[in-house]
Amino acid sequence: MLLLHTGGTLMMRGGSAKPLAVPPRSIYADSLIEKLPILDEIAEIHTRVLYQIDSSDMQPEQWLGIAQVVHDLLPHYDGVVLVHGTDTMAYTASALAFLLPDLDRPVILTGSQRPLDRIRSDARQNLIDAFQLALRPIPEVGLAFHNKLLRGCRATKFDAWGLDAFDSPMCRPLARLGVDIDIEPHVLAPRTRQAFDDRLEPNVLAVRIFPGLDPRLIMGAIDAGVRGLVIKAFGAGNVPRLTRSLMPVIEHATLLDTPVVIISQCHRAHVDLQRYEGGRGALDAGAIGGADITDEAALTKLMVTLGRVKPGESRIAAARAAFAQNVAGEVTFHAHDRSDPES
Q1: Catalytic: 86?
Q2: Active-site position among 28, 257, 276, 332
Q3: CA nearest to 230, candidates 157, 295, 317
């Protein structure tokens, strides 16, 4: 088993009488087995420290570094466990799902809300769960936390203080861990290994709309060089069309070949751009519906998609094709999920 360490709360040390304000470099990956010897009974563990950073400092460059290492080393192991800070774990899990579309064995991310060396810590169980899951026939990027395994590109962080920090509102967990480990039938099948592709476009922007948002602010960002835009719209994908209308923004982006993907602000929602006038106007202006994709998956999927557009190809066409596909289980399509404005 391969353990990859990137930082985060799980490996930090801290005084029990003080608040947790511990430097990210205060880690003890080498003493993991000493701290939690039961892991030695689960698998032979090889540890590799990739980064020692707070996850709020995780960037696309680190995603690519992690993905490259996993791609190169995974064939030599039964699975990979990746220790990561919780703040951006769902972004990394989503990015890895799209950067590694050819998995034939598990890549399991985990972390904790409290460090391993604290008496009251969720790190012990999360680590044990992650290592046990990494030996199961689950050839996906998963996020193991609080006795369940979530699909990586469906997970999002819901709670900064509770131990049950992550959820996957529109997709059942891949596995639940109680007395036994129950694996659900919607786990993806193993896929054929491919060459690693490190192309990614980081210049994308996500905007959560709200009453009073000045469209000129988004227009300025597009003119400044944004290559793709994710709009977190109301409800089923509605955006303002009267006062402070966003329709000119979407039309302007379309003229510049900048794809606009519409997702919902609601955790439990499915975008239907044909349901209401606000969505239909966005569709007619050139927007792409994101179905029930999460914030994290929409951004990372757009980054990976745009990074692979060849010179002379249309970015909008590439994004429209990509968001019409279910690459890694990131969406559930309904009959109305058609982004073609002529449909």
Answers
A1: yes
A2: 276
A3: 295
What SS3 state is found at 127? helix
Q: Collapse the DSSP code of 203 into the 3-class scheme (helix H, G, I; strand E, B; otherwise coil) and give the result.
A: coil
Residue 193 maps to a domain: no
Q: Does the annotation count 77 as an active-site position?
A: no
Q: What is the pTM of this model?
A: 0.92
Q: Is 87 a catalytic residue?
A: yes
Is 337 an active-site residue? no
Among 6, 51, 86, 337, the active-site one is: 86
Judgement on whether residues 29 and 168 belong to the same structural domain of the protein: yes
Indicate the residue type of 86: T
Which candidate in 157, 257, 284, 332 is catalytic? 157
**What's the domain range around 127?**
2-183
Name beta bridge partners: 263. Answer: 232
For the stretch 268-307, pLDDT in tens is 999 999 999 999 999 999 999 999 999 999 999 999 999 9
Quote the tokens at residue 338.
Answer: 């058609």
The span from the CA of 332 to the CA of 289, in Å, is: 12
